[in-house]
Amino acid sequence: MSKRARHQPGFYATLFNDVCDRTCNLKYRPKVKPSVMGVYEVERVVAKRVKGGEAEYFIQWQNYSPSENTWEPAEHLPEDIIAVFENRSVDPLRADECRKRLALLFEKGLKSPTACNETTPMRHDVLRAIFPGMPSDLRGSPYLASEEELIAAGLGPCLKKFLTVTGGGCRVDAPVYLKLFLGKSLSFLDEQGLKTAPRPVEKVQIKFTKSYFAGHIQ
Q: Do 161 and 110 belong together in one domain?
């Protein structure tokens, strides 16, 4: 009986360096970051929720994919990071872009034969800057934006539209239902044919009804 050949020293260690093994380890590793802020830098706080009576914040980590965002308790975060999240100021260009997207949704809803019920990706911090009264907690009740708030947000011209040359049109019935939530992106296959993990996506659900009027808009 012949003896089985022995592998060179270190052969079995190389098995753990295979690309597929590394991908598998990355896919199933726990998505938990240490609470040491000096090691993992916070890019921004994405969202907030209250769980078990305690506030938790959804963190986008600097130089990490959004798929690795994690919920962290308030005691793990510096106070200035939370203060920036609670402060409703954003880049004016982002706010203008958000208003344009909302205007298109209102126009689409006014043209639709049925009520508007749309879900679209949108940064929560920008939407909260446009509607300062909107709560930060994702688990809170949907926000109902009044007509006054919609006008203050710069969306007044989008609330009424002419429909025909002879006059008359339709208007958005306030309040408008706004619900912030975190959805998931589509999954794809990477170069090794493995399914990529979906990443969290900030989304908003918008619902409103409309009514028709005769004559010209005043």
A: yes
Please list the residues that pair with 169 across neighbouring strands.
162, 213
Residue 7 corresponds to which amino acid? H
Residues with Cβ within 8 Å of 119's Cβ and at least 6 positions away in sequence, in order, are 183, 203, 204, 205, 206
Task: Judge whether 4 lies within some domain.
Answer: no
Q: How many Å apart are CA 196 and CA 173, to the nearest integer?
A: 42
Kindly tell me if the per-residue pLDDT of 141 is higher than 70.
yes
Q: What is the DSSP letter of 25?
A: H
Compute the half-sphere exposure of residue 33: CA atoms within 13 Å on the CB side of its CA. 24
Evaluate whether 63 touches 44 at the Cβ level (below 8 Å): no
More reliable by pLDDT, 27 or 125 = 125
Q: Helix/strand/coil (H, E, C) string of 47-71? A: EEEEECCEEEEEEEECCCCHHHCEE
- Average pLDDT across the chain, whole number: 82
Cα–Cα distance for residue pair 156/150, rounded to 1 Å: 6
Q: 142 and 175: one domain?
A: yes
Q: What's the one-letter identity of residue 98?
A: C
Report residue 39 as tokens: 């090691």
Answering whether pTM is above 0.85, one says no
Looking at residue 26, its pLDDT comes to 41
